[in-house]
Amino acid sequence: xxxxxxxxxxxxxxxxxxxxxxxxxxxxxxxxxxxxxxxxxxxxxxxxxxxxxxxxxxxxxxxxxxxxxxxxxxxxxxxxxxxxxxxxxxxxxxxxxxxxxxxxxxxxxxxxxxxxxxxxxxxxxxxxxxxxxxxxxxxxxxxxxxxxxxxxxxxxxxxxxxxxxxxxxxxxxxxxxxxxxxxxxxxxxxxxxxxxxxxxxxxxxxxxxxxxxxxxxxxxxxxxxxxxxxxxxxxxxxxxxxxxxxxxxxxxxxxxxxxxxxxxxxxxxxxxxxxxxxxxxxxxxxxxxxxxxxxxxxxxxxxxxxxxxxxxxxxxxxxxxxxxx
Length: 325
Ligand code: TXA
Ligand code: MG
Hints:
It is a single chain. This protein starts with a strand and ends with a strand. Helix 1 packs across helix 4. The strands form two sheets. Strands 1-8-2-3-7-4-6-5-9-10-11 form an eleven-stranded mixed β-sheet, sandwiched between helices. The protein has a five-stranded parallel β-sheet with strand order 14-13-15-12-16, sandwiched between helices. Helix content is 29%, strand content 20%. The protein is built from nine helices and 16 strands. The chain folds into two domains: 174 residues, DHBP synthase (Alpha-Beta Complex), CATH 3.90.870.10; 92 residues, Rossmann fold (3-Layer(aba) Sandwich), CATH 3.40.50. 48% of the residues are buried. It is of the alpha/beta class. The structure holds threonylcarbamoyladenylate (TXA) and magnesium ion (MG). Threonylcarbamoyladenylate binds next to strand 5, strand 6 and strand 10.
């Protein structure tokens, strides 16, 4: 199959919407990462996303809406805590778990009786959903287990030849997948950290629980290895420990760093912003770049686990096979 890559415009959105209505897949930009869209209410279309990504059948999809009026028919009820989160953060990079209505097919939720709903702030994404006239189920537009795409070029690398159309909206704004929070539990549970931070959520609704990933995975996707370049990733917490570690393991290394003093280390070094919000937007591009260098290992400097830094570290710890210092 030939994959067209077309800039977001009124015409390309109409073309993409027609494909969605016809049960086909379209990749499109959102404010977090690029998504692989299908009609969320069409079981056959939804199953195509699993096939295209080679996604495990037990990993449910997020359903995207472009208007609050689309929500009530997709969910059994809107708990008060969820309503507060909607008021505070929608549209934006926060996805909320609800009990699902019978309208949502089991294929979309991988058989669960809950559904995750997301109302993106990205204009092109919203125009696509509106034009399609149906909620759009969209996982990140990468092969399962790989790094999520933050440019149309990344999507082309992941799914070129497999899907008919990629809408190109340029680089994304946030760069990490949306925060996922479960409001079906008595105390809301954060299942996936993201650019809407735990601190911001707690300011809006009070204390939340953070899912312990060692427990039975509440978010099925979190149990799979994720966000990984092909090259082994090693995290380093203390920059001072890095030079000795590099000497002790003579192999070709790439160092991703945000401490100025580390510029010259390793066979290749790639800077990333020290500010976590900027680093989040750069991270997946930098990981892909590092992966093309033919190194034996990618060393990445860790971030403090507060605010957006917590979301960055969640992704890095999933990608990493080792850490030093
Ligand atoms: O930012 C995002 O959320 C992007 C863009 C495209 O919107 N989408 C995305 O989708 O990251 P995906 O499929 O890569 O990640 C969805 C996550 C998975 O960890 C999945 O297990 C979880 O949400 N999830 C989906 N439905 C769920 C449910 N009913 N209960 C618990 N977790 C659920
Ligand atoms: Mg994903």
